[in-house]
Amino acid sequence: MIKLSNSQRRPRYQLTSIFLGVDCATSIEEIQTAKVQQPHSSPVNSHETTLKEKLSECKSEMLSALGESDEYSSLCKEHPELRERAQALYNEARERSAMLLGKMKALENMLSLYAG
User: Fold this and answer.
1) Alpha-carbon distances of 48 from 40, 60, 107, 113, 116, rounded to whole Å
2) Which of 38, 66, 72, 85 is most exposed by smallest CB count within 10 Å?
3) What is the CA radius of gyration of the chain?
């Protein structure tokens, strides 16, 4: 298209021979074919990705909880007078580790079903 000079407010355009030579029916068919050939993310892939992300988060939290419980243990060895105060915190970190381990196991089981 080319823009025609016009003194009116709205510009006017004229179709060129290049535009008129385009076969619209073929172009629409090509577009529809291209849409069909594009890979769509299936719900399975979406669920699998979500599960992998959750598993990764659980692993990070697990490492944190294990590090926390190890540090409480080390602190109690270095400073025996802190054992009574630190014991409850140590127990909470260990319980959190056990809970996260269960979550990780469930996520790994679900992922194995998708890999199946």
Assistant:
1) 15, 18, 10, 10, 12
2) 38
3) 32
User: Hunting for tokens 């823009």 — which residue is that?
Assistant: 3
pTM reported for the whole predicted model: 0.58
Would you kindly state where each structural domain of the chain is located, as residue ranges? 2-37, 43-115
Return the closest-CA partner of residue 68 out of 100, 41, 36, 43.
Answer: 100
- Note the pLDDT tens digit of each residue in 49-83: 999 999 999 999 999 999 999 999 999 999 999 99
pLDDT at 111 over 60: yes
> By three-state DSSP, how is residue 13 classified?
strand
